[in-house]
Amino acid sequence: MIYIPDEIHFIINKLNSFGNHCFLVGGCVRDYLLNKKPKDFDIVTTATIDEIKRLFTKVISTGEKHGTLTVVNGNYACEVTSINSGESNLDINKLLKSNLLKRDFTINSLAMDINGEIYDFCDGKNDLFNIIIKFNFDPVDRIKEDPLRMMRFVRFGCELNFKQDEQSKVSIFKNAHLINNVSSERIRDELSKILLSDYPANGVKQLFSLELLQYVIPELIDSYGFNQHSPYHDKDVFSHTLEVLEHSPKKLNIRLGALLHDVAKPVTFSIDENNIGHFYNHPKVGAQMAEDILRSLKYDNKTINNVSILIKEHMHRNRFSSHAEAKRFINRVGTDNIDDLFDLHIADIKGSKYSSAISDVEYNKKLVKEILESDEVLSIADLEINGYDLMELGFKPGPKIGDILKKLHELVLENPEFNRRDKLLEIVQDEYC
């Protein structure tokens, strides 16, 4: 029997207690048949919209014009859809079938009652057992109803590691341009789910082959087949990007960084007299391109900023030559991004020809950990004097105070023992007064 949390049981029992019929539908039934614990629960019921509103205290009108409300109970937000046609004698089977036939994929068009009986009008169970994902009936009709279903097709394929129906793929290929009719926010959410799946590289590869990527992130298209002419890489830029994605941990910032870390290589490419390729400033240019891409997809500012830092710093992975260099690195990257950047470094190296460089990253990780656990100065704010101390020495408020503090900071990074109030004031008086 399917696992149903108490909060969802409460919703079903309350609807049933007033003479209604309820069915679990969609992903939770699919996951149950795949022996997975469902995360989300959707319900269809013969209760009317007004009755649902009356029975529950916390109801959100998420899709009321389509008969759907979100009922919140405890930690669960459950979509409850009314299939009540308003007729005096309801044909339950007919109403349920009508609802299921309108759904996107056969494997999401299953229903189950509280006793565990499965209702399958679209051959969804058979497709589940044959591990194949395909649209319900005419793929073009399903796509035109909601073009985001094209990205959902890719997402379910790489989340479940299912085969994909050929007719469905051809229909997506021919109608990929319709993704332009979908809001950036919805595309962003689907892209994030693809990247956070168990097979993100396969998902991005599918987006490319189905010609969706050229509308979602057109900046990545030029990387396909782009020969790097590099002794460090035996793959083109796009294939390398997929390798890095495959080796990256399941965290959104890291996977966005992996996806976009080399986005600027085609636009910064040059080749020398020895036929060796170079990509000068590609981390800096790529960081700016990534900001523009993520902003167009409506990612939040924190995500945009953090991913930009990862891309800008993704080539700074040589073994630190000193504690001072490590502390400058921490300062630039920020403590919140350090671990993510190291993970991106390792994934990037694994996607190249020289995995031996991982030892340098491991050394850097160890040194950074030691520094962060110590009381060593990292930022200007850690200095034992500040701008007010300089003003007491007679300096007027202005840029000069900032310049002096920056120079003192650099001095202390190299010589931590100098971070004493008396010593720093002595240096200021000797060198700047």
Structural account:
- It comes from Candidatus Syntrophocurvum alkaliphilum.
- Residues 161-220 form the tRNA nucleotidyltransferase/poly(A) polymerase RNA and SrmB- binding domain.
- Its cofactor is Mg(2+).
- This is CCA tRNA nucleotidyltransferase.
- 51% of the residues lie in helices and 10% in strands.
- The chain is of the alpha+beta class and 433 residues long.
- Among the domains are: 6-130, Beta Polymerase, domain 2; 249-365, no CATH class; 380-431, no CATH class.
- A hairpin with a 4-residue loop joins strand 3 (59-63) and strand 4.
- It is elongated.
- The model has no long low-confidence stretch (mean pLDDT 93).
Notable characteristics:
433 residues, alpha+beta, Beta Polymerase, domain 2, 7-stranded mixed sheet, two-stranded parallel sheet, elongated, NT_sf, CCA tRNA nucleotidyltransferase, metal-binding, tRNA processing
Summarize the structure.
With 433 residues, the chain is of the alpha+beta class.
CATH architecture of the domain at 6-130: 2-Layer Sandwich
- Quote the CATH topology of the domain at 6-130: Beta Polymerase, domain 2
Rg over C-alpha atoms, rounded to the nearest angstrom = 28 Å
Strands in their spatial order, largest beta sheet: 3-4-5-2-1-6-7
Quick one: overall form?
Answer: elongated
The total of helices stands at: 22
Distance between the termini: 80 Å
- Relative helix content: 40-55%
Number of strands: 11
As an assembly, this protein is: single chain
Compute the average pLDDT.
93
**What is the C-level CATH assignment of the domain at 6-130?**
Alpha Beta
Helix-strand category = alpha+beta
Largest sheet: 7 strands, mixed
